[in-house]
Amino acid sequence: MRLEDLTVIKPAPTPGDTSWFTHDRFGMFIHWGLYALGARHEWLKNYERIPTEIYDEKYFRHFDPDLYDPALWADAAKDAGMKYFIITTKHHEGFCLWDSAYTDYKATNTPYGKDILTPMVEAFRSRGLRTGFYHSLLDWHHPDYTVDHCHPMRDNEEYIAGDKDRVLSRYVEYLHNQTEELLTRYDPVDIIWFDFSVGPGGRFAGKGKEVWRSEELIEKIRKINPKIMIDDRLQIDQDVKTPEQYMPDGWYKVNGVPVVWEGCHTFSGSWGYYRDEQSWKSVDQLLKMLIDSVSMGGNLLLNVGPTGRGEFDERAYDRLRGIGKWMKRHSRSIYGCTQAPLEFECPRDCRYTYNPDTKRLYLHMYSWPFGKIRLTGEVAEHVEYIQILSDASEMRFSYNPENKTVDIPLPIYKPLGADIPVLEIYLK
Ligand code: H79
To answer: For the whole prediction, is pTM greater than 0.90?
Structure first.
């Protein structure tokens, strides 16, 4: 088969511009809000059924991140090889990081007293990273947001009785206004990432696209920025599918059609800062999540939950530095890459990624196979030159046309500086 005739999947086109996104592959999610002070999950208001007065008495009144310096965050993201960031402008708790004209529940009214979002966007943009805004559809603070089964007051009869005076459409107006405010003030925003549409549960009504007036909201967003990428959680698929904390077992499909997708993952389980969580993933595991995603045509959005003083903690820095060390010498197998041609058989315990522009195939070896590695089938026909990606050292190989194999002898020891070694295979 000719190289041009191999099957390289292209995801279905979308209304926004995803060309940069499917090239860049790796972004930083940031979950930051009042819950950083609770330091025990961003859903703590919900899990512990905390009334707003108590939540605010504690966290709103004590929010003062004196060590907040977004330049440090942006440096850490860039050094890890991330190309965009997505910040929680407002999470489910309802607290706003920017100086919104539509609410008093914002950073400027805390002891900190300053806008958090503007310097953050500036810091990341000035380092060449693109900007995404996570924005919660749920709002556990707004007086017109009615109770549903995902609400902190779902068991509080007195609070639920108050729903008769709540006008949900007023909240939706607020949601539309704030979205327009954000996208205008920080134009051009590259991604808007809404989270999420609550299904009906028990005695409570759900909140979906009719309630959010999703279609109209999308129209308003595209009027401000036609190129923006919109996620799928307004209950209308737009530019990107967002599997959360799980790895698809192949290219993510909608009705059988491969689409643009981005998996979002945490370091330790929760998204907001959780001091005592011990379930931190290793650098090796995180790198494999990135490689796995690209090998299935997707992106990885990896989350950091900064502390209440405004820092990434040491565990986060440790992982980010480890990822950056690998990325420095291996990002060529990530940026601009996608799933390999479907005809190619991948050796055991390995992952391919493929750059269709340079026609180079990347073989990631998850365990070092000692004596040699063998490529069989269609791929063997196309091997022109092979080197180890980390140091451009030549890998000699022998081609056997009779059984269509390429044998690549390997040293007994894994090459230095290549924790997950990658062979760069030039195809012909
Ligand atoms: O922002 C992060 C999370 O806080 C948020 N999305 C990421 C990016 C998120 N967490 N959970 N969900 C979204 C999905 C909600 C699942 C639920 Fe339930 C299942 C809501 C109701 C049933 C579990 C049980 C959580 C609340 C009750």
So the answer is: yes
